[in-house]
Please model this.
Amino acid sequence: MKLKEIVEKLNLEVKSAPEMLDKEVTGGYVSDLLSDVMANAREGNIWVTLQIHQNIVAVASLKEIRGIILVNNRQPDEDTLQKAIHEKIPILVSKLSTFELVGKLYQLPITS
Amino acid sequence: MLKIFNTDLHIHTCLSPCGDLDMTPKRIINTAKSKKLDIIGICDHNSAENVLISKKIGKTFEITVIGGIEITTSEEVHLLALFDNDDDLLKLQELVYENLPGVNDENAFGLQLVVNEDDEIVRHNQRLLIGATKLTIEKCVEAIHSLNGIAIASHIDREGFGIIGQLGFIPEGLELDAVEISPNITKDKLTVKEFPVITGSDAHFLADIGKTWTQFSLKKPMVKEIKKALLKTTLKI
Model:
């Protein structure tokens, strides 16, 4: 499923890199511990987290993660946003809590 | 006889992947001098490889450089470890390295430069310094104290990598010597009352050095004396 469709279906606010929304998402990972994401997230994943500092962009870029969904309407720090624009990593914001968001995300045809 | 020392214990060099490339020891010390700082702490992420050169340059410029490391614990909490003795510091670095998996990706995270006193690059540190060690915060504090250092929880007002943001609260029985607040808040806004509070710049850019500092009244500019001052907790920040 394309990132663009996920954005539409889950009503996400696109904060950066709208030009990257045509990419295919092949799975997901949910974690707030960056070392865990670095160890276990896979290329093509969408990543759900509440962390908003700029290291999330570096991790996403390194792991070739398609996009980062921030939950609870949490807004990225300004330096996070600048880095995401520069690195072309879509940061997407959801008003939902992690539990609700992942519940909806899991019902979408995203094959891991 | 106690003297007042303007102290910024939390400065990163170009060894930290997120540190600006201008953050060479020489430039840091020049800037610290111009900001009228008496003591600076060099605390790079999970490494102390620019400390000895910083100390050497500090001597020339008559500014005290304290050697330290900002450890990332297994809970992804940032913790400052500061030492008087270089051997103790290097022993801690060894422990950190033994427990720090991964290799740096310079494109994703940034360059990690070890430099000499002329600002020339000696080597690129290849370890994943931005990563987390496998050491719990309790283990880190214990190791720091066993090596005669002091342990200070970094920028506890900040969500990212601050102890309260990561753990929700400061674990009971954790023997921190102090907590640090970032330039973003003032001491009166802090709800933590159990620990002495210091403030440091956490500078990653030259312009941020000395953005905030702590005034210590000390006999000598040493960690040993800072520890005594913290026990008295009459700090002006």
Observations:
- The helical segments of chain B are 25-34, 51-60, 86-98, 106-109, 137-146, 163-167, 223-232.
- The two ends of chain B are 21 Å apart (CA to CA).
- The first helix of chain B runs from residue 25 to 34.
- The mean pLDDT of chain B is 94.
